[in-house]
Write a structure and sequence with these properties.
Two copies of one chain form a homodimer. The first copy, chain A, is of the alpha/beta class and 329 residues long. Chain A has helices spanning 4-9, 26-34, 49-62, 82-91, 108-113, 125-134, 157-167, 181-189, 199-202, 211-219, 242-254, 260-270, 274-277, 300-322, and strands spanning 15-17, 39-42, 67-73, 96-101, 117-122, 138-142, 172-175, 195-197, 225-228, 236-239. Chain A has two domains: 4-197, TIM Barrel, CATH 3.20.20.70; 212-289, no CATH class. Chain A is globular and about 60 Å long. The interface between A and B is large, with 56 and 56 residues.
Chain lengths: 329, 329
Amino acid sequence: MKTRITELLGIRHPIVQGGMHYVGFAELAAAVSNSGGLGTITALTQKTAADLSNEIAKCRALTDRPFAVNLTFLPSLREPDYPGYIQAIVSAGVQVVETAGNNPARWLPMLKAHGITVIHKCTSVRHALKAQSLGVDALSIDGFECAGHPGEDDIPNMILLPRAADELSVPFVASGGMADGRSLVAALAMGADGINMGTRFVATREAPVHPRVKQAIVDATELDTRLIMRALRNTERVLTNPAVERLIEKERRLGANISFSDIAPEVAGVYPRVMLDGEVDSGAWSCGLVAGLIHDIPTVQELIDRIMSEAEQIVTGRLLPFLDRPAAA
Amino acid sequence: MKTRITELLGIRHPIVQGGMHYVGFAELAAAVSNSGGLGTITALTQKTAADLSNEIAKCRALTDRPFAVNLTFLPSLREPDYPGYIQAIVSAGVQVVETAGNNPARWLPMLKAHGITVIHKCTSVRHALKAQSLGVDALSIDGFECAGHPGEDDIPNMILLPRAADELSVPFVASGGMADGRSLVAALAMGADGINMGTRFVATREAPVHPRVKQAIVDATELDTRLIMRALRNTERVLTNPAVERLIEKERRLGANISFSDIAPEVAGVYPRVMLDGEVDSGAWSCGLVAGLIHDIPTVQELIDRIMSEAEQIVTGRLLPFLDRPAAA
């Protein structure tokens, strides 16, 4: 498939693996890139800039295709070593960076000065327009469906994607709710140039997470995620479990006048090292509504090939016949 | 266009106008049907069964195409005269009924006994499966984006439509968030057989609502709707205004242990006769997130023609070229 995103990124299929803390290691990123998509290493999962350099080198050894590094900017008491991470990215010759979280203004010039293609992820049209005006090359438009931080506007992709298409001039990928060929064709129809998948890639053979985590995603339906920390305006979508339900119950009891310290013990309880050790009963982890559309744990190659063949079949075998037109030979 | 829904309903385009209280009068329903879609008269907006008979007769005089009547089943102290409404529908030879609200089990046999095609509107896969098992002919799957009552699951159509497609065998239309050719193609790609539009049809020349209401929809962005009465589990999505904000503020203050009587004065304040008198500052009315995609007030014919030509252009001029294939001649 050929879209503005495949052209911009030099990839075969318009499928990007989004940055995921404790998931975006070299193995997964390389598997995605080797399958024709764009894999992404998550910088902040690496403790130091030197660790990131090593992870990039590891990925480079596993693939000769382009891959990205995710840099997430969050308010923090002890700011991560962003200059160091960026230096590691530049030195290694990484061509694409996915920025996320806060406004990327502070770090964008450094990235652009080295010719790096920057995709900024955000959850609203106004933030997308701001990022475009700052000079990012593409956007990842993250709908209410998404895992992790959906923002506070609660606008699903059915609305957000056409709105973004109306306003933006740079290419963008649809993020949140993306599972299969249906999602891809729908996103393209609404104006996106490709898709970004997170949760769907966690449930693949190559994802470096505990098998129980993958199985929990397969077992979950679309009704099994929860939005936590809403009243703090730091909403996060996670897969439910007893610890998450306890946190939500406390949030409900405390109501609007909640402060972080009120729920700190419960929040601590839902953030263990679950992605690494598979303690699925006690921990929480980001999980999108798309869990309801995930029923298997294929290899990354199988997943991407399936999405692309489904997409082609939907366009030529379903949509074209609706128009009462024969498919092109 | 030809889908299971156009075949089932005997219409030219897979576009249904959903039932809307105080909007679904004969003029709008006839305009939609005359433009190749399926118009819908809302039964409960008519005070008596005799009034409904008159409204159906009026619609029949305005169009010789099929149209539907909406029957909404709500818990109520004084139950509406459903047997009378159904008798009016049957006597007039109306071929299609849209049911909504509660489980249609009690009234479905009466409708089916007269050969009426029943489309049931619901907001979850489990309710859709239940309705299918009861024998409805089609479903209208209503995502979190929708105006009015989105239910309490908060599942947007990006997830709900493919989930419905995986589970249902009867045809279904996508409802909630539907505005244009992009929505239509996206919905079809995700497995729907057509679309149901509400808010988009309110902002047409023929809709029998005050021009200030139409203009308010045009002026609104996707950030201007609010969900009220969440804590009562009777959520409704409305366009915001000062009265709505006062209600929401009170709901927030009262928190989880709210009862209807706590907010009855504010609720009364947001439910005047706005659709009829255009008191846009004091009243609330149902409005979908799709308001962010509505920028004009065309005739119904212009709207439907535009949607269909956009849809064709998206399939043949956008999606097919992405596949590197020429459009069929």
